Amino acid sequence: MSEPAAAPGPRGPQPDSTRTGPGRLLVAVYALFALAASARAGVQIATKFGHAPVAYVLSAFAGLVYILATVTLADGSPAARRIAVVSCSVELAGVLAVGTWSLADPATFPDATVWSGYGSGYGFVPLVLPVFGLLWLRRCARRARTLRTTATSAEDAGQAADGAGHGRDGGPGHSAEDVVADGRN
Amino acid sequence: MSSVNGAVPTTIIIAGLALAGYALVMTARNRRMTVPLLAAVGVLEVLLLVLVGLIVARLAGGERPAGLATLIGYLIAMPFIPVAAAFWGLAERSRWGPAVIAVAGLVAAVLMVRLHQIWPVIHV
């Protein structure tokens, strides 16, 4: 929360930025994987941990990373965005490392994890998800910078700030993002 | 061992894929959430609840799959997928609302395949 707020109101564009537009889809898919990975790991660890301990611990770790990414992407504050970048990066590293490991040493993985075979059991979604997550976070960071710069100059200009075309007062911070999201996608 | 009525999972696969296709067309055409799309989500929800009922009835009859814990997890989570997608999609005021619905449709179809893997009496 060290960054200055862009909007004077209690709900400026920034807090919503990572969960609206394409981020809405991203958070939905992340939530799905958070549920799938952690529930699966929970059942496996509770019922047959000795069968494939490495795979199950990695599944649980993946589940935690997905939960963290879901929550931080849905939150969207500057601090949450930084944590989201870390969790998406860990996730990408994890799917690449575990994917390679599972192919090189299948004996360690008698049962699959979400990241086995680079997520082949889940249509390779686990492989592309962190890439889209990181791309989206980078775009949001750029947009936040632009909005901040514009807001600052608008405030300098005086009363015109609220009507300067940012659409901040058109609903709870959605309008500006809709325009930006539609325009760029 | 007889199977759970296969018409319901088959219908769910078809309905889920149709819903996903329709929602993706809306996303491609830059449409927001509409009432007909929401009604289609409601149909999917009803179908899933019917299937949960059929499977619970089967469990109540005394039969058990090998992965009972997993199956119960699916039975609990399954009905929440369309509901969560509807709320999350309605909160979005752009083309990405229908995109969330598309995910729910695809997930419903994939879940039918997974259910069959967990308990083969659930035929497609």
Task: Explain what you see.
The complex is a heterodimer of chains A (185) and B (124). Chain A has 185 residues and is mostly helical. Chain A has a domain of 120 residues. In chain A, helix 2 runs antiparallel to helix 3 and helix 3 packs antiparallel against helix 4. The N terminus and C terminus of chain A are likely disordered. In chain B, helix 1 runs antiparallel to helix 2. Chain B starts with 6 loop residues before the first helix and ends in a 6-residue tail after the last helix. Helix content of chain B is 74%, strand content 0%. The mean pLDDT of chain B is 93. The radius of gyration of chain B is 15 Å and the shape is elongated. Chain B has 124 residues and is mostly helical. Chain B has one domain.
Please describe the topology of this protein.
The complex is a heterodimer of chains A (185) and B (124).
Chain A: H1 22-48, H2 53-75, H3 78-104, H4 125-156, H5 175-184
Helix pairs in contact in A: 1-2, 1-4, 2-3, 3-4
Chain B: H1 7-28, H2 35-60, H3 68-77, H4 80-90, H5 96-118
Query: How far apart are the first and last residues' alpha carbons of chain A, in Å?
Result: 29 Å
Radius of gyration of chain A: 20 Å
Unreliable spans of chain B? none
- Please summarize the sheet with the most strands of chain B: none
How many strands of chain A?
Answer: 0
- Give the oligomeric state: heterodimer
Count of extended strands of chain B:
0
Q: What is the largest interface, and how many residues per chain?
A: A-B, 23 and 21 residues
Succession of helices and strands of chain B: HHHHH
Q: For the report, how would you describe the main beta sheet of chain A?
A: none
Radius of gyration of chain B: 15 Å
Contiguous runs where pLDDT drops below 50 for at least 5 residues of chain A: 1-13, 160-185
